[in-house]
């Protein structure tokens, strides 16, 4: 008999503690302390309360909790002394059904992990709808996590424990993240298409206008139709565009290319607008399943719900699956969203991929018109739009570390990148006194530490020296040359410029002090795309209504919203990424619970937009 | 009519200024100011006084002096407006006889140099005995110096101006560094032998027991005989040993292997001792002409002088050309000097070179006995020796930068070397806030700057991170790994150990602070070889007697004296290296004037040792 939230909120404390028995392994105190915060507006709010209790408890109780867990496929499993919950979870992951080799391998990993960290390896092995994670994924994750620093790994274990508790709580409440599961399945299904050569490796790679890319477009088109979109088409650059009309049946579907004669033209009525949303469906090489695609599927799930309920909003919803954002096959980053803002670069048509195929030929092969006229006609009239929103997996560690499922983007950061070389004088490491040196590596070291400190001052700026090398360095030669890269980002152009100017001034000063010189070539510069305050507020209100804490953060990575920002107000919603927010990597991951929350937040945004005064 | 030092010391100031006219291009004020320090004990003292005047004059007069010089093969030469001295010098370097291509190339270099430094390129183009430098060497040096920092290049021009002034001064005084020239010629002659494959490249490479190496040994043997050594032989490891008997004709020649039956055995008398000296004649690949060899030839020149004068000292002099110090063909560093201290490693005999030839085979091919018995018999009895002295080119920038020709070594530094890796966590450079990072490169940067600062505190310790690399670094990825080397040296074991312990403690602390970990493997550790105070004092007295400033400095590089240090007192004399003291490089260079001073210093040491109370 599932518990209800009302039942939990009104029970006596001992009864309520009993209701939540078994969520955290051998540790009822967590639920008990969280229950002091009753009533809870949602399961999400209850989960967050328990997360907060554990985070505030300090290291000793956290370690005790971790150590209360059984080893994965460990001795307790063999001796049948697992808790009922653990046994069920490990069984579903197929871990009670290992081959002797797999079992021996996991025992070895357990031994190494325990020796290094002094606590057992914890992994939430139940995926969406109680399915187990594939054994191979479990072992790969185990091996990867063995390399982590101990404090990081302690936190990672706690995050997995919260995920385990979330799944157990869902079971107790008979709650299924149905929408999240559906969106999860869509991602799984779309991820079956991958470019030639990658399927064999089990890798996901979908680059512009390949067979796999066109299969994705066709699948998205069909899924949009199935969801109940009124009009769906693939445009002249391969974007998949779905429109769900507004309640005013005469509403002009803004997404229809301007140049086309429309059957619906007569339905046009002045003042009727469209909300634009979407993200990209191409991927980097060996990428993740959620980068981009989550921003197409989340609004699709919302439209499906509206369609099922027979509901029309006082505005149209236009969802675009952008064909190209990653710039992998051709150096044409943001091609898909750029076409909507009139920024398609005509020179791109003649650009060749690694096999010598021009983009024009690739377009023609894909059945696209490959004409600039058709592409230019994709440009949208901003006056017809309310704005642009985009859901995206965070691709960073912030939400994951804070144990918060959703985040509201304040700005897509401005950035500037350089490649540089420091030139001092190579000399004998034994015979050259410290005050006679012009050490190129120490000069770059000083730059790195200054940039690190300076970015830290801003709180939300970042500075990175990602490439660093003394070419042909020898153990006994003071470096005469040192190559480096420099990547600076900040939420506004002004903040980026101030950071940039301080870092470059210090570079000049330290070169002067050290008697070295440098070269520095700017390789990239992008303006910030601050989120429109009113759209940020809408996201905040939507997230808050779910009982989920509202957290705001800048986006350090670029997104399609940067392009739309040039012509209309925009704001993004981030969904927590697991595994420290790893992205552009097969380990990129989310949960169906988090996805469910993002669908509900998007639905809330739509409803609040439809009823601003409710 | 040459000037005499007495004439200069007693002339009126205007007369003396006139006598020194033309030493420094269009700048009589330098000699004028130096003359206030009269009387001068030696030409070397006068030279140093002028160096001091210019060094203390400040930047503006220094720049004016540099700019008073003509361009190399420049317009002034073409228009015949050079000073007589410059014209003579450029003519001797063959620069007035350039091909049109060479002339155009030099003009291009002049233009680039002037544009970068805003003063003309100055190079002392007259070699020993007024010979010009080869045009190819001039052009190679010009190209290399174009890469120098501006303040360094200003100092380098001044050093060359001092060298030009020295040559002009020698001309005025009719002074020829005869001993220096002879030793210079010996080096040139010995440098004609080079290993197969290097002659074609114009490179000097002499590795253990090659044909070139054996030719060097034969040549050294003949040169020793020509100098008047009483006994000369090549020993069981290829060392060339020459003995010049002491005045006591019955003196036992200590250098004779202990096991051998000697014709001179009956001459043995208790208490008669030998001064041991020498250095190595093998080279690194593409090495310099002076590294090692200077320490054989300088005492040979002294013995030649003694022999010519028919003088015997109250002790024997044993000069050893060590066969192997660099460990190039076989990993058997210090084989030659180690044989004298009983440190020949028997396993070396079976070591193979790159062509699979064992050392045993190489020895047999060279006509050496290749028996451990014969090698072990080379071990010297320390009781029979006064001590060991070694002359060596500095291989560092200290004397060159101070404009001082000779230096007395206080200690051969203790050292320790490591190879390490810093391990943090790779993450997205855009999306990972500064306070969420575990940047492996920033951690190494902190180590580098700490080690630099800590070594600087000691004054004469050195710390170097010569190898530094973020493997597979990307511009937009925070480094998860960073590889580095660490080389720490100090004049005593205790000082090295304190430096080492502080640097490792900081490494541990910064890893803790930054949540990163590291690996560190010790690859080498060598004890310090402090010079014997009484032998340092003898060198200081000898140098001082020449009117040359006494400068003491540690040796950062290892030398044969390190091995002899294990069994007897030792002290080294360094000779300034040109081109910032570059070594293990064809640009390693000295002057016949500096070499002359080192021969005279060594002779002084011998005379003072012979007459300690004079």
Question: Topology, pairings included?
Answer:
The structure is a homodimer of 614-residue chains.
Chain A: H1 5-10, H2 13-19, H3 29-34, H4 43-56, H5 59-67, H6 75-78, H7 84-92, H8 100-117, H9 135-145, H10 150-172, H11 178-190, H12 211-227, E1 231-234, E2 240-244, E3 274-280, H13 294-308, E4 316-322, H14 335-340, H15 359-365, H16 372-376, E5 385-393, H17 398-402, E6 406-412, E7 414-423, E8 427-428, H18 440-458, E9 462-464, E10 468-469, E11 477-478, E12 481-490, H19 493-514, E13 517-526, E14 529-530, H20 533-544, E15 552-555, H21 560-564, E16 570-575, H22 592-610
Parallel strand pairs in A: 3-4, 3-5, 5-16, 6-15
Antiparallel strand pairs in A: 1-2, 2-4, 6-14, 6-16, 7-12, 7-13, 8-11, 9-12, 10-12
Helix pairs in contact in A: 4-10, 5-10, 11-13, 11-22, 12-13, 13-22, 18-19, 20-22
Structure write-up:
The structure is a homodimer of 614-residue chains. With 614 residues, chain A is an alpha+beta fold. Chain A has 3 domains: 169 residues, UraD-like; 307 residues, 3-Layer(aba) Sandwich (Aminopeptidase); 113 residues, Alpha-Beta Plaits (2-Layer Sandwich), CATH 3.30.70. Helices cover 41% and strands 15% of the residues of chain A. Chain A contains 22 helices and 16 strands. In chain A, strands 1, 2, 3, 4, 5, 6, 14, 15 and 16 form a 9-stranded mixed β-sheet that branches. In chain A, strands 7, 9, 10, 12 and 13 form a 5-stranded antiparallel β-sheet that branches. Chain A has a two-stranded antiparallel ribbon with strand order 8-11. In chain A, β3, α13 and β4 form a beta-alpha-beta unit. In chain A, α4 packs antiparallel against α10, α5 crosses α10 and α20 crosses α22. Chain A is globular, with a radius of gyration of 27 Å. Chain A starts with a helix and ends with a helix. Chains A and B meet through β7, β8, α18, β9 and β10 of A and β7, β8, α18, β9 and β10 of B.
């Amino acid at each position: 008999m599932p518990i209800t939230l009302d039942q939990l909120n009104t029970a006596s404390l001992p009864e309520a503690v009993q209701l939540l028995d078994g969520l955290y392994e051998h540790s009822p105190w967590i639920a008990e302390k969280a229950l002091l915060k009753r009533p809870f507006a949602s399961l999400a709010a209850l989960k967050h309360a328990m997360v907060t209790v554990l985070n505030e408890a300090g290291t000793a109780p956290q370690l005790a909790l971790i150590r209360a867990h059984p080893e994965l496929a460990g001795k307790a499993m063999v001796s049948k002394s697992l808790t009922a919950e653990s046994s069920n979870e490990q069984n579903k992951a197929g871990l009670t059904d290992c081959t002797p080799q797999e079992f021996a391998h996991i025992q070895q990993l357990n031994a190494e992990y325990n020796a290094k960290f002094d606590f057992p390896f914890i992994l939430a092995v139940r995926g969406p709808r109680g399915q187990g994670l594939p054994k191979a994924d479990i072992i790969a994750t185990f091996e990867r996590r063995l390399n982590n620093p101990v404090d990081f790994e302690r936190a990672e274990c706690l995050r997995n424990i919260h995920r385990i508790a979330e799944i157990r709580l869902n079971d107790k409440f008979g709650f299924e993240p149905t929408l999240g599961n559906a969106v999860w399945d869509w991602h799984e299904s779309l991820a079956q298409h991958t470019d030639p050569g990658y399927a064999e490796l089990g890798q996901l790679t979908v680059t512009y206008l390949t067979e796999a890319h066109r299969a994705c477009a066709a699948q998205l088109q069909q899924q949009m139709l199935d969801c109940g979109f009124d009009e769906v088409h693939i445009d002249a650059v391969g974007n998949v565009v779905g429109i769900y009309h507004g309640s005013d049946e005469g509403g002009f579907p803004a997404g229809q290319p301007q140049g086309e004669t429309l059957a619906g033209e007569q339905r046009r009525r002045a003042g009727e607008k469209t909300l634009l949303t979407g993200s990209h469906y191409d991927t980097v090489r060996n990428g993740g399943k959620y980068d981009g695609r989550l921003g197409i599927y989340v609004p699709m799930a919302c439209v499906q719900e509206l369609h099922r309920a027979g509901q029309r909003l006082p505005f149209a919803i236009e969802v675009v699956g952008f064909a190209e954002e990653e710039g992998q096959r051709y150096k044409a980053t943001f091609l898909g969203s750029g076409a909507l803002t009139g920024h398609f670069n005509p020179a791109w048509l003649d650009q060749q991929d690694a096999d010598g195929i021009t983009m024009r030929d690739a377009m023609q092969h894909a059945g696209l018109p490959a004409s600039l006229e058709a592409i230019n006609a994709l440009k949208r009239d901003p006056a017809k739009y309310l704005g642009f929103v985009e859901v995206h997996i965070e691709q960073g560690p912030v939400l994951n570390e804070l144990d918060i499922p959703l985040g509201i983007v304040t700005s897509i950061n401005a950035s500037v990148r350089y490649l540089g070389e420091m030139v001092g004088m190579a000399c004998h490491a034994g015979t050259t006194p410290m005050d006679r040196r012009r050490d190129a590596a120490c000069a770059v070291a000083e730059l790195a530490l200054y940039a690190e400190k300076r970015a830290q001052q801003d709180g939300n700026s970042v500075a990175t020296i990602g490439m660093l090398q003394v070419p042909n360095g020898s153990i006994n030669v003071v470096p005469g040359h040192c190559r480096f890269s420099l990547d600076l980002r900040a939420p506004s152009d002004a903040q980026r410029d101030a950071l940039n100017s301080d870092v470059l001034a210090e570079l000049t000063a330290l070169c002067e002090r050290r008697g070295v010189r440098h070269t520095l070539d700017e390789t990239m510069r992008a303006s910030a795309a601050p989120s429109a305050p009113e759209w940020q507020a809408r996201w905040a209100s939507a997230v808050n209504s779910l009982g989920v804490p509202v957290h705001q953060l800048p986006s350090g990575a670029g997104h399609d919203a940067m392009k739309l920002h040039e012509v209309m107000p925009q704001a993004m919603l981030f969904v927590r990424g697991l595994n420290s927010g790893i992205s552009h990597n097969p380990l990129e991951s989310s949960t169906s619970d988090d996805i469910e929350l993002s669908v509900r937040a998007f639905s809330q945004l739509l409803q609040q937009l439809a009823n601003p005064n409710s």
